């Protein structure tokens, strides 16, 4: 999966995902985090073209972070192990359940 990071400092960052067929779709970065257990950085994304009343499908990838921890790689890495997926799901659930984090 290739990605192009679009962003400007404090503004919301966006990533354009490009699938194997060359189709592009714009995603918003929900949040990023680092797991000490897996020694990887992760990014959670949702489609930019989603309506207010639509269900949102969040996608997660590991990525190669720069020294500041930012998403800079043009390659996102798919999460392949069930244990790693469970950890990412737990972090997402914590984010969604905490109003201070999710902004609700």
TrEMBL record:
InterPro entries: UPF0473 (IPR009711). Pfam families: DUF1292. It comes from the Bacteria. Belongs to the UPF0473 family. This is UPF0473 protein FC39_GL000646.
């Amino acid at each position: 999966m290739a990605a192009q990071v679009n962003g400007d400092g404090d503004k919301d960052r966006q990533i354009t995902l490009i699938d194997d067929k060359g189709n592009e779709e714009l995603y918003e970065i929900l949040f990023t985090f680092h797991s000490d257990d897996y020694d990887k950085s992760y990014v959670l994304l949702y489609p930019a073209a989603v309506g207010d009343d639509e269900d949102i499908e969040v996608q997660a990838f590991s990525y190669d972070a720069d020294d500041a921890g930012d998403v800079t790689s043009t390659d996102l890495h798919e999460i392949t192990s069930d244990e790693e997926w469970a950890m990412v799901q737990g972090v997402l659930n914590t984010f969604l359940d905490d109003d201070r984090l999710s902004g609700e």
